[in-house]
Amino acid sequence: MGVTHITVTIRNPAEPERAWEGLFLVDTGVIDSLVPKDKLESIGLKPKAQRTYELADGKEVKMDITTADIEFMGEIVGGTIIFAEPGTEAILGVTALESVGIEVDPQNQRLKRMPATRLKKLKPKI
Q1: In this structure, are residues 37 and 85 in contact, taking their beta carbons and an 8 Å threshold?
Q2: Using alpha carbons only, what angle is made at residue 11 by residues 8 and 49, rounded to the nearest 5 degrees?
Q3: pLDDT tens across 13-24, in order?
Q4: What's the N-to-C CA distance of the chain in angstroms?
Q5: Smaller CB count within 10 Å for the chain: N or C?
Q6: 67 has a pLDDT exceeding 50
Q7: Distance between alpha carbon 47 and the CA centroid of its chain, in Å?
Q8: What is the DSSP string of the chain?
Q9: Angle, CA of 84, 86 and 90, to the nearest 5°
Q10: Residue 44 near residue 14, CB atoms below 8 Å
């Protein structure tokens, strides 16, 4: 399976003119989005809390988080952003994608709009 990248803008909701734009890896296995902390600090965002996350190797780490506006593909959503170490690749998590009705097409690794944003989980077809 390939990888998908997308240009995303992270905006400070208290000062919308302060924003950072970057190329994000789309990762449907990650819940929240992740951005290098120096990029978040450059637009005036500070940690609001800490949350424990489980890494791919099963290790648990406590990380700083904040909330911000996340803009991509002509959509905007408020979401949780994890403070990552400088130099870390930015990641767009599944919560932001699903919140605006966008999913990854697994066959061609492209993002596509759903006809409508889901309000409930779909029942499997029998």
Answers
A1: yes
A2: 105
A3: 999 999 999 999
A4: 27
A5: C
A6: yes
A7: 16
A8: ---EEEEEEEE-TTSTT-EEEEEEEEETT-SSEEEEHHHHHHTT----EEEEEE-TTS-EEEEEEEEEEEEETTEEEEEEEEEEPTTPPPEEEHHHHHHTTEEEETTTTEEEE-SS--SSPPPPP-
A9: 55
A10: yes
**Tokens, residue 48:** 């609001």
Average pLDDT, whole number, for the chain? Answer: 89
Q: Which residues lie below 8 Å from residue 94, measured CB to CB, with a gap of 6+?
A: 27, 28, 29, 30, 31
Which CATH fold topology does 4-113 show?
A: Cathepsin D, subunit A; domain 1 (2.40.70)
Q: How far lies 40's CA from each of 22, 34, 48, 114, in Å?
A: 11, 10, 12, 30
Q: State both tokens at 77.
A: 């959503």
